Amino acid sequence: MRALARIVAEADGRGGTRLARLRGEPPLQLRHTPDGSGAATVHLIGSAAGPLGGDDLRIEIEVGAGAVLCVRTVAASIALPGRDGSRSRVSVTAAVAGGGELRWLPEQLVAAAGCHHLALSTVELAEGARLLWREELICGRHGEQPGDAVISTSVNYGGAPLLRQSLTVGPATPGWDGPAVLGGSRATGSLLHVDPAAAPGGPEVLGPTAVRLPLSGPATLVSATADDAHRLRGFLER
Amino acid sequence: MHSTAYLLLADGRFPSGGHAHSSGLEAAVAAGRVTDLAGLESFLHGRLSYAAPVTAAFTAATHLTASRLGRAPSHTHSDNKVPFLTLDAELEARTVSPALRLASRRQGRALLRAGRLTWPSELYAYLPKHPDGPHQPLALGVTTAAAGLSTEESAHIAAYGVLTGPASAAVRLLGLDPYQVQNLLARLAGACDEIAASAAAVAHKSPEELPAHAAPLADISAEIHATWEVRLFAS
User: Between B45, B89, B92, which is nearest A178 by CB?
Assistant: First the structure.
């Protein structure tokens, strides 16, 4: 399946956020779920299983000055193999204007056995933009080894590189679950917090396999591995 | 045929300060994740798959940039520094752990000192100035260019260094049999060659497109290691 979803959020001029554009197509359905705050919350509802090998799903997000957009998913997505072994791909392209804020807080991605998945995200933050960006990867469903998955994230701030990271798991990569990478943990993830107004802090150890890292730029990254999705979320909640 | 300069730079006895770093092995041993030769093998596979492509690609890209400058007519136009600033910023964005950023810069500074005295060149002046030193792959890229090596050789030295640092640290930390460790390195040689060749092949790309592999435990354990009061290795 090929599909494109588009969300454009703008300040409504009364301290709130309105969705100037909200358009999805199967299997990417979008629902505006007002929560009474100044932010606009959109839930992404997968109307089909997957992503499935061969799928090419694109999500485009724009957040204007003064707008706050929160994007969530209703359930974990499960990357599954296609019939012919072809790759599934989900790409997210987001742009946030100065004074705007994007919170990208989806549920986990589960890399099921035999999958061949690529998640590719590119975020362009103007100077003064804020961002919360969570990524959680679960290696395989219960009791199975994962297929191959790559989660690649690229974030610019004010035109300069802020974060470039690409996490690869699965049998095609020697050492992926070994002591230099995941140490046998089945869950790993990160939460990027970009806020130019936040006071810069030092690194902080949050647990035996979780740390908060100040980046070179107005941002911190919590990085963690855990035995399961629940424990992982404990480190990445905010 | 490889030159003697290539052997000098790849040699662990070259005074570049690399012996002070275990590349995360000390922390992995302390956490009980590496206890024996099989654990070291798995650790080194991870270092080769995740750290080596990034380090070798940035070394090769820096080498290529520096070699082109070295062949161009000599002038000190400030625009010549721009490609190095971009490489520095892109590598910084790939190094999320402050402890690893510092370890890379400290090793870069030590290598730069040794390189400048061994193969004097005006190319070193293009490296971005930073109080903790240039990132190690940038320092290595410029040093290999000053030494007259090829882009492939520069990538090879970088990938090889990713392997040998923790391998020699393993002998000290775990008391492993050095012959068995050498045997392990020989078995990993083919994988190391492939990663070096792939890195050299992408050296011409824009720095944004270079590999960005992240290994969560490398970042996490580097920060935990940095909080220890007593440690054998700097990283």
Answer: B45
